[in-house]
Amino acid sequence: MGLIYYLVTVVISVILFLVLRELMCWFFKINERIQLMEEIKSIMRTSDEQEGEDAQDNEKQRLTSCPECGEKIEGTDDDFCGACGNSLKSE
Questions:
Q1: Domain ranges within the chain, ordered by starting residue
Q2: CA gap 22, 43 in Å, rounded
Q3: DSSP for the chain, written as a single string
């Protein structure tokens, strides 16, 4: 008798916990908040990727000539100016 009473108590407790958890999530709109945060995170990630690409494009366009001596730079991957030796990497 004691084992059956214990099992029934555990089953009822688990069911009650799950029902009350769903009720609390609904009442405090937790599920909607999570969905909204995921949407915001997705938008922010897309925005950050776009800004990173724009910054790289601007960097490549900007470094067509050495800022120190004005010499034209042949490659966009050069680290130093071929004429004066100035560093072309922005920090």
A1: 11-49
A2: 28
A3: -HHHHHHHHHHHHHHHHHHHHHHHHHHTTHHHHHHHHHHHHHHHHHHHHHHHHHHHHHHHHHTTB-TTT-PBPS-TT-SB-TTT--B----
Q: How far apart are CA 83 and CA 80, in angstroms?
A: 9
pLDDT tens-place values along the chain, 91 residues long: 789 999 999 999 999 999 999 999 999 999 999 999 999 999 998 887 777 766 665 555 555 677 778 787 776 666 777 778 887 776 5
> Within 10 Å of residue 88's Cβ, how many Cβ atoms?
19
